[in-house]
Amino acid sequence: MSTQNFTLPDVGEGLTEAEIVAWKVAPGDTVAINDVLCEIETAKSLVELPSPHAGVVGELLAEEGTTVEVGTPIITFVTDVRDDAGPGVVATAEAPAPEEGGGSVLVGYGNGGGATSRRKRPAERPVRSSVGVIAKPPIRKLARDLGVDLTTVTPTGADGEVTRDDVVKHASQASVFRNIETPEWGTVREETVPAPQTAPTGLARGIVAPRPSAADDDRTESIPVKGVRKATSSAMVQSAYSAPHVTVWKEIDATRTMELVKRLKASPDYADIKVSPLLIMARAVIWAVRRTPMVNAAWIDTEAGAEIAVRHYVNLGIAAATPRGLLVPNIKDAQDLSMKDLARALNRLTLTAREGKTPPADQQGGTITITNIGVFGMDAGTPIINPGEAGIVAMGTISQKPWVVDGEVRPRWVTTVAGSFDHRVIDGDGMSRFIADVASILEEPALLVD
């Protein structure tokens, strides 16, 4: 018998650490190659970590909720490497050795050292719970992440199976009312987290931070900054203090946009596609970029000075609030997509982000971003530019308001569009022209028929 450590692998994202979110095994469990050991969260995504060995779990070396560096042992296996392993003894099945100078890699990801064989896992079958809900494991996980009780979801799948769309639809409907109730105070009044190894700047200079009183301890909760929140905060600080932001906004009569959305929803061509005003907004931004390409540019510092890169394509970013935090995946070459294809791309992007499965590649290379703050009931805002871009557009809530039409006050669907821009790249006239173009499309979507 022997004990073997398994270290946290490089998941191929260029990151150096990850958080152990949840262990899926316990000491004494027998595992096969590719069985899921745990879920880990990086700044980019939530990943299921498969086992590279077959054996018996010995010890879990990292607790749930802790952040560990790549290469740190996180679990041990008790294995038997003999050829004559007797009954009840599990033989080891080693993963391919990493290349010299490299660390462990995820099973199936490879390390550039040649093809590797991988045992295929049985196809996932629907699982019926004790309360009679039929849903596949990935759907159950999605429901947990979105806070959806599967017993309250109306199934539309074959034989009464709850589908992914059922869960997402239920979650979107519930979110409208989620903030109405005031949450109760928790039973734990304070939560402490390990102090960082590197002392804050002030403490490094010998400045002693005041210790909270006992009363303060009872009233304060400490939340560690890690994962997506850590990456988001770093990017926003970088953007806010490197690019001079300017924001302009315009109130718009979006009645004809709402009429178009209603017609598309009723169209057989869009029967399997979710349609929302965000689709028209996305088309409007792409159309307006073509007329003012500098909003789609980027400021680049070089050794020889600075230059502006004007992109003649649109990788359209959509800011998405997910259970893991704010993500900004983008639709590559959105300018080439038809209305229907763009709608499908938005659906896929949103669903993947909500599941926490957005790959790192989908979060890189964006050229301009839309943030739909209207889904939270906000009228307008001053969004911060996504790093590497020169503009971001915020769409406010669409609601009925009195509006003057041909000298008469009538109820119309009204929204506010705001845009923040890097003033190093684009001047006020360009910013204003771009937002005016977006507004003109929302006011009259027929302009898209060119």
TrEMBL record:
Record's protein name: Dihydrolipoamide acetyltransferase component of pyruvate dehydrogenase complex
InterPro entries in the cross-refs: 2-oxoacid_DH_actylTfrase, 2-oxoacid_DH_E2_comp, Biotin_lipoyl, CAT-like_dom_sf, E3-bd_dom_sf, PSBD, Single_hybrid_motif
Domain Peripheral subunit-binding (PSBD): start-end pairs: 134-171
PANTHER family named among the record's database cross-references: DIHYDROLIPOAMIDE ACETYLTRANSFERASE COMPONENT OF PYRUVATE DEHYDROGENASE COMPLEX (PTHR43178), LIPOAMIDE ACYLTRANSFERASE COMPONENT OF BRANCHED-CHAIN ALPHA-KETO ACID DEHYDROGENASE COMPLEX, MITOCHONDRIAL (PTHR43178:SF5)
This enzyme's EC code(s): 2.3.1.-
Essential cofactor(s): (R)-lipoate
A Pfam entry, by short name: 2-oxoacid_dh
Gene3D superfamilies linked: 2.40.50.100, Chloramphenicol acetyltransferase-like domain (3.30.559.10), E3-binding domain (4.10.320.10)
Record-stated family: Belongs to the 2-oxoacid dehydrogenase family.
Keywords, sorted A to Z: Acyltransferase, Lipoyl, Transferase
Keyword Acyltransferase carried by entry: yes
Matches recorded under SUPFAM superfamilies: CoA-dependent acyltransferases, Peripheral subunit-binding domain of 2-oxo acid dehydrogenase complex, Single hybrid motif
Disordered, as annotated region: 110-129
Keyword Transmembrane helix appears in the UniProt entry: no
Domain Lipoyl-binding: 3-78
